[in-house]
């Protein structure tokens, strides 16, 4: 199997993973804002996310000689009895990342793409990187690593302030909207619109598509834009309490903080649970089992959510999912799953070479997702000066944290 041998190669993989992991959330957020049901999207996403692990295993995992010390991907898949404790750690990591990704998808709707990625990633680094530092035998430079972790923690705090400030800005826009001139506040108008929507069938199999209407372009950042977005999107959140969104994102961050240490344990056996003659579980076999459990949890939960939806999402069914007419949305969800799967694979490949704590530099992915959020979604348009200052400070801390964590990279020592 192919293994990265040098720090430069590991940093190159981190950079590629940063771009990939910062892009796939944008694709799913686009689909939610277009009104595609998150259950349908996540089912498509889960399929190609698992296929990415198979693809990586059959390519990188089969490169090079197949020796007893470093068996190739298919060899280890054929002998699970040799490494079953490590397989369980890998599958546990897949469970928690699946829960985190699912929570993140709802978090985007509540607090926006930028803040969700910042807070979840920062919590992941603060907890997960600390665990990985000790699991890796302290190979990373602590005097460099932990100041970087501190920068991520500051970025998480700033992310919370950005969300609160932006929510206040949006409320002010709604209170000053043109609907007030007709005798209704913006919230009353929104409530009326949503009540009208509730009179239509909520089951996707019964609902009929609306007649096409001519819609004039609405400027991003205005009250009309917020009301139009809420009316169109699949997850209804406008007027929700700020703590709901922050609670969802915090849960996602905690889940994210555990998957990398679990994968680290799976591939390096720090607890010495494997038999003395058994080789360590390779990163490609570990990633296969990791992705398999992620796939199982993601599909199981979203099949349940088809019939028991939450957050104002319409009810659906397996039949409606299979016959979903949004073929373009399905293609984008499948693409997002493949991009995410490749991004995670590159992260683990870099972590095995330079330490999983240093590989957590890819959690600076909000630099990418915030760029897309501003460009594609108009996030923070027409916001207050305070919001802009907080946003700029948050992104600056991310840049510093990413550079510092990469600088802490070091060669892995044999266990």
Estimated helix fraction: 55-70%
Summed over residues and divided by their number, the pLDDT gives a mean of: 82
| Straight-line N-to-C gap | 19 Å
Tally of DSSP β-strands: 0
- Report the C-alpha radius of gyration, rounded: 22 Å
Q: Estimate the global geometry from the Cα principal axes.
A: globular
The proportion of strand residues reads under 5%
Number of domains: 1
The biggest sheet, with number of strands, parallel, antiparallel or mixed sense and barrel status, is: none
How many helical elements? 15
Helix/strand-derived category reads mainly alpha
Query: Low-confidence segments, ≥5 residues, pLDDT <50?
Result: 189-201, 208-215
Order of helices and strands: HHHHHHHHHHHHHHH
How is this structure best described in words?
With 415 residues, the chain is mostly helical. The chain has one domain. It is built from 15 helices and no strands. Helix 7 packs parallel to helix 8. The longest helix has 34 residues. The protein is globular and about 70 Å long. The two termini are 19 Å apart. About 5% of the residues have low confidence.
Considering the chains and any ligands shown, give keywords for the structure:
mainly alpha; single chain; 415 residues; 69% helix; globular
């Amino acid at each position: 199997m192919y293994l990265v041998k040098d720090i430069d190669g590991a940093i190159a993989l981190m950079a590629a993973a940063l771009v990939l992991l910062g892009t796939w959330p944008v694709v799913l957020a686009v689909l939610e804002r277009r009104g595609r049901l998150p259950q349908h999207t996540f089912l498509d996403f889960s399929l190609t996310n698992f296929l990415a692990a198979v693809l990586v295993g059959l390519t990188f995992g089969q490169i090079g000689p197949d020796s007893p010390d470093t068996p190739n991907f298919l060899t280890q898949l054929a002998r699970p009895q040799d490494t079953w404790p490590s397989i369980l750690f890998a599958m546990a990591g897949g469970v928690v990342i699946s829960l985190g990704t699912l929570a993140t998808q709802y978090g985007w709707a509540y607090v926006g793409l930028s803040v969700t990625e910042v807070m979840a990633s920062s919590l992941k680094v603060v907890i997960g990187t600390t665990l990985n530092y000790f699991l890796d035998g302290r190979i990373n430079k602590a005097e460099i690593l932990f100041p970087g972790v501190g920068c991520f923690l500051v970025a998480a705090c700033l992310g919370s302030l950005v969300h609160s400030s932006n929510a206040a800005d949006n409320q002010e826009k709604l209170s000053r909207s043109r609907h007030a001139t007709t005798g209704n506040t913006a919230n009353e108008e929104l409530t009326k619109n949503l009540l009208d929507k509730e009179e239509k069938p909520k089951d996707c199999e019964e609902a009929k598509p609306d007649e096409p209407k001519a819609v004039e372009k609405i400027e991003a950042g205005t009250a009309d834009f917020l009301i139009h977005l809420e009316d169109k999107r699949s997850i209804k959140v406008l007027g929700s309490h700020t703590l709901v969104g922050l609670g969802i994102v915090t849960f996602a961050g905690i889940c994210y903080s555990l998957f990398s240490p679990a994968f680290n344990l799976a591939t390096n056996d720090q607890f010495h649970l494997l038999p003395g003659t058994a080789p360590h579980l390779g990163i490609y076999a570990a990633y296969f089992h990791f992705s398999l459990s992620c796939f199982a949890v993601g599909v199981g939960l979203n099949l349940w959510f088809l019939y028991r939806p939450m957050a104002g999402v319409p009810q659906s069914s397996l039949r409606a999912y299979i016959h979903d007419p949004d073929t373009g949305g399905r293609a984008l969800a499948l693409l997002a799953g493949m991009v995410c799967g490749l991004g995670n694979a590159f992260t683990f490949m870099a972590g095995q070479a330079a330490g999983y704590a240093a590989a957590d530099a890819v959690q600076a992915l909000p630099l990418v997702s915030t760029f897309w959020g501003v460009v594609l979604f108009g996030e923070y348009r027409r916001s207050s000066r305070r919001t802009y200052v907080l946003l700029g400070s948050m992104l600056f801390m991310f840049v510093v944290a990413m550079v510092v964590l990469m600088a802490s990279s070091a060669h892995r020592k044999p266990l």
